[in-house]
Design goal:
By secondary structure, this protein is an alpha/beta fold. It folds into two domains: 6-50 and 308-397, Aspartate Aminotransferase, domain 1 (Alpha-Beta Complex), CATH 3.90.1150.10; 70-301, Type I PLP-dependent aspartate aminotransferase-like (Major domain) (Aspartate Aminotransferase, domain 2, 3-Layer(aba) Sandwich). It has 13 helices and twelve strands. The strands form three sheets. It has a seven-stranded mixed β-sheet, sandwiched between helices. Strands 9-12-11 form a three-stranded antiparallel β-sheet. A two-stranded parallel sheet has the order 1-10.
Length: 400
């Protein structure tokens, strides 16, 4: 007898390539030892949190011993944390936010899922530049939405604005932008972001005349702090009154396991308060209830800090040298901590397998909606990147 739905069975059959490779890495490490495997599959931040995290934790521990110190908090977040987040995001997004415009979430993923639960009707479409983070389709699909990928423009993977505009239909409920981007490391230019925002504004003007539902610009920003070589990340919230921003502290503070993020709306959005109330409700009814209270307090105490980004920059440059030495084509990423390198053969799974023979783990581009490429994460020690160089060369030799 069948124990799960057909939809979930299908999802399990095509489950995340990232997790598959991560599990394959564990198997290889058991078989050959940790030092024999170069695992670039998972974006699990390994750089230690800022040193001040210790003092923040000590302060939280003292408060936690009081009654309700670790009890439930309001579904939208601890009031003092929402206030701190509003001030922080006001500076970051160059938009005057108040606490009532912010919801604390269970990571950026929880923010996006709660948002989609609040706005998606069955049959709605969510447009996104490809390649894209692998779980977007599931996040909107849980509620009957359909992800509609639009190929970006290699080799830089800047968004194809004309193609995004052409992809919008009366069913489109949102356009997702993710900059700095996972998996490409591309930072979208302010001009491109303005052009995408104009698509949203133009469509909403038409819908206002015809009495339709709003379309949103949803900016997913967990890698905002990861910008290199003088690059900057333009604030998304001022681009259109229909913009929502979400993010997390998983990468910037190496708090991935603590699962704390945020959702914020442009205060000028018609119905902004209703949307925030809806996301607060769905945060509760989806079972999140509230973001972890320890994580919220940690984030609030460390808002103006980041991990040592220079460590990631050194790894980025080392990875570039390793790939270049092997003859692998790539665009040096300006942001995030990933490389999206071109496969030497059309079927990138063959390249993944060739690298596996060298005990190097990468993720197929198919998993990100863009075959012919592979993703590598720089969440590894420099010695692993150095050790991988000869393996990349041997793998490439198989295709010459």
């Amino acid at each position: 007898m069948q124990t799960t739905t057909d939809e979930i069975r299908d999802s399990m059959a095509s489950s995340s390539w990232i997790r598959r490779m991560f599990e394959k890495g564990l198997e290889l490490k058991r078989q050959f030892g940790e030092d024999a495997v170069c695992d670039f599959s998972l974006g699990n931040p390994d750089v230690p949190p800022p040193g001040t995290v210790r003092y923040a934790l000590e302060s939280i521990a003292v408060a936690a011993t009081k009654p309700l110190g670790l009890g439930y908090c309001p579904n939208a977040g601890i009031p003092a944390v929402r206030e701190a987040m509003a001030k922080y995001l006001s500076r970051q997004q160059q938009t005057d936010l108040q606490p009532q415009h912010v919801v604390m979430s269970v990571g950026a993923a929880g923010a996006m899922v709660s948002f989609f639960r609040a706005v998606i009707e069955p049959g709605d479409e969510v447009v996104v530049p490809a390649p894209y983070f692998v779980e977007y389709g599931a996040y909107c699909g849980h509620f009957g939405g359909k992800l509609k990928p639009v190929p970006s423009l290699p080799p830089t993977f800047s968004p194809d604005v004309a193609a995004l505009r052409a992809a919008v239909t009366p069913k489109t409920r949102a356009i997702i932008v993710n900059s700095p981007n996972n998996p490409t490391g591309c930072i979208y230019s302010e001009d491109d972001l303005r052009a995408i925002a104009a698509i949203v504004d133009d469509e909403n003007k038409r819908r206002e005349r015809e009495g339709g539902r709003a379309m949103f610009l949803l900016s997913d920003e967990p890698y905002r702090a990861f910008a290199f070589d003088g690059a900057s990340v333009a604030p998304a919230l001022p681009l259109t009154r229909w913009c929502c921003v979400l993010g997390s502290f998983s990468k910037t503070l190496s708090l991935a396991g603590e699962r704390v993020g945020y959702f914020a709306v442009n205060p000028a959005m018609p119905g902004a308060e209703e949307l925030v109330a809806a996301v607060t409700l769905t945060t509760r009814t989806l079972g999140y209830v509230n973001a972890p209270v320890i994580g919220q307090q940690l984030a609030a105490a460390l808002l103006d800090e980041t991990v040592d980004l220079e460590i990631y920059n050194r790894r980025r440059l080392m990875m570039a040298e390793a790939l270049k030495g092997a003859g692998i084509e790539f665009e040096l990423p300006k942001g995030a901590f990933y490389f999206f390198a071109k496969s030497p053969v059309e079927d990138d799974l063959k390249f993944v397998d060739a690298l596996l023979e060298e005990k190097i783990l990468v993720v197929t581009g198919k998993g990100f909606g863009f075959p012919g490429y592979v993703r590598l994460s720089c969440c590894v020690d420099e010695k692993i990147i150095a050790r991988s160089a000869d393996g990349f060369k041997r793998a490439m030799e198989k295709f010459r």
